[in-house]
Amino acid sequence: MVLQSAAAKSVELYDRTTARHIPFPDTQEGRLAAKLLIPWLEHSPTHFVANVTTDLYVLRLGDILLPFTVNFEEYENSYVCSPYTHYVTYAKEELYKLKQPLLESILGRLLDGIGFLLKAGRMNQTVQVNNGLLSTNLYPDQVPSLLNKGLDLLRTNFPEHTIIFRSLAVSVNAPWIHALREQQFRFIPSRQVYLFSSPNAKARWLIKRDRQLLQKNGYEVVRTEQLTLTDIPRLKSLYDMLYLEKHSRCNPWFTEAFFTQSLQSRTLQLYALRCTASDRLDAVMGFYVKDGVMTTPVFGYDTSLPQELGLYRMLSSVLIGLSEQNGWRLHESSGAAEFKRNRGALADIEFSAVYDAHLPFTRRTSWFILERLLTRIGVPLMRKWKL
How far apart are CA 376 and CA 372, in angstroms? Predict the structure, then answer.
């Protein structure tokens, strides 16, 4: 089935049954998109991200192809596909970072109340556009001229769904934010993110010191082309140790199929750190680049090894080095705030753009309340505590 807009043939929706008919541009980016999206459409996203249940589609806006997910409830999904998990479940887990027991208790009860309200407002009944099911979704630097027609098509085909664009920050997505404001989207704060900037002398010294740990501790950088399929279980384990076991099970559970596809198709550039003494991979990162912006949805290391070894520091120095060598702007996502600030990263508030004007009043109310609470309470807390 292909759902077509009567207004323009170049604005179309594709689903799993029509994946092979998507007109991918004959460019390097278009070929990469085909290698990524066709398997995800035909196998289902759960095959690649175990804690995500969703229907995947592709929105065509002329030569621009944007994947989008469609959900109804699925409150146990990872935050990359579940607003409820992001704003309630994950947020409650993160309260410990405040190190203020009384405040944590108050905010925990507040989140319980918000959670009840958001479920009543069917918060997870959403269409999330440009959703690659990654921690940070990068956008084209230019807004497609057919965006308005694409939004009309989405509203027509999913009239009872909230339409959401995740991962929008003023410092990198100003044109998109302007365009979506004109379409009456509301902007709901989601998290504080960090973007690498021109480091001062102290930051440059720290990065150099981190890089020197590679030779000091006997590690070598392993590039994508040097990795093999036999490395996949270890790469997955390294990611799991950091993101799922140390941080939160709300993060995406990338499967071995995800790492295999990334390695074989180069949809992510995978790098690892190998200990020369043991010939063992002890750290991994996977990044992708869009229109000169780089982000790293895969990052992990062997957390059983001594912290003094500095695996996180070494891996971060390699990441920063790649961004500088290639002239890419490094989007460092969230977390490890003090570490990133000390090495030249600047903070910005990331938003989810939410369109709910076509929904009943009760549905809009939950989003309105969430917007007010996060703008007046959430953002000041993120900035004060540098989360």
Answer: 6
